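Thought: the user asked what Protease looks like in 3D. I have the sequence; next I should run the structure tool and report back without guessing.
Action: structure_tool
Action Input:
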Amino acid sequence: MKNTKFLSLAMLCALFLCVSSCKKNNTSEQTDNKAEISASTLQQIKSLGFSVENARKVDNGYLVEGDILLTDANLNEKSLSPNLNIAETEQYRTTNVVKSLPRVITISVTNLPQVYSDAVDLMISRYNSLGLRMTFQRANTGTTGNIDVFGFNEGPSGGYITLGSSGFPTSSGEPFNQVKMNTNVNAYGTNPNLLYVASVLQHEVGHCIGFRHTDYMNRAYSCGGKRSNEGTAGVGAIQIPGTPSKADAESFMLACSNGGDRTFNANDVIAMNYLYK
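Observation:
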């Protein structure tokens, strides 16, 4: 998830946040640049329906759309998803979703300050309150969960800072297995707000179970700046029936954050119920 421009901490908190790298208004995980990605790999990313604009090589794969990690396995998967017509702003899922329902997804927290651990507990309670056939719980102490939440420390780059990142489910129906959260002081400040951190985690876990950004067809809606489409509608961007064709200002899966507590709105609940109830 992203934050828009890196000004001061007070200003950052008023900006928008993003998801699979949640950004504080236009902040994403910035590591290596697109020049380090081969032409063939860029074409694979395009063929999956993702934008290659600002794509970066990172550990374990490629970061696209600000906070989404695509692994080599993702790039080599064949999708049977039909192409879609883009509306305005709707909830979208990836080709792969979590399977073998009902099931419990365990979440571990590795070497992070207490506020991140508390935020994971809050995030879990938010998902479990929906009464889905997919529930979450903390992994046993000393074990790694189906999703491991761990930290990285990365300051602002190019005027932006990444809050977190994650990826999408596997073709076998397993959730993406990690969420990275930025522990740099410029991401959440010296005293991170519990609700804010929980909202970023909720967004990143949304990617892990198959949700794309609600405004993927026009990131400017939540991030500001010029109109930017994260990827053509089609493979990897399947509109969820029952969600609106108009702007949805409070969705937990908007590309960029408002710097505050953003959880499920009514349309998000429709989308969650469609996939997992």
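Thought: the tool returned a structure. Summarizing for the user.
Final Answer: Structure for Protease predicted. The chain has one domain: 2-276. Residues 195 and 261 are 5 Å apart (CA to CA).
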